[in-house]
């Protein structure tokens, strides 16, 4: 079993900052990609930022220059530092880890339960 748990969401004023954390735990042989997605009401889930196994990070255009995604491989943890937040960043933020549970397993996606981020005055 693999568990992915996010933390750090909340309510913040426009222009403020929040830091999200996500840890993967359980039966883990390896993790390739690890990153963040978000889903606003009435919209499809979209990529925010992802760190792949070689350390390269990809960002959505809408968050470039404002959000920073980082990863601690020793802790199977990924972070999302969100600065200069805007009302349009309001969404449920989900963490995804692409995990091979054992050395004989194929990789599959594991999702967290999501954490709400609300940007409002």
Summarize the structure.
The protein is mainly β and 121 residues long. 0% of the residues lie in helices and 56% in strands.
Write the layout of secondary structure elements.
Layout: E1 2-7, E2 10-12, E3 18-26, E4 30-39, E5 46-51, E6 57-59, E7 67-72, E8 77-82, E9 91-100, E10 108-111, E11 115-119
Parallel strand pairs: 2-11
Antiparallel strand pairs: 1-3, 3-8, 4-5, 4-9, 5-6, 7-8, 9-10, 9-11
Specify the biggest β-sheet. 7 strands, mixed
Low-confidence stretches: none
The number of helical elements comes to 0
Shape: elongated
* Percentage of residues in strands: over 45%
Descriptive overview:
With 121 residues, the protein is mostly beta strands. The chain has no helices and 11 strands. The chain has strands at residues 2-7, 10-12, 18-26, 30-39, 46-51, 57-59, 67-72, 77-82, 91-100, 108-111, 115-119. The mean pLDDT is 96.
Annotation keywords:
single chain, 121 residues, mainly beta, 0% helix
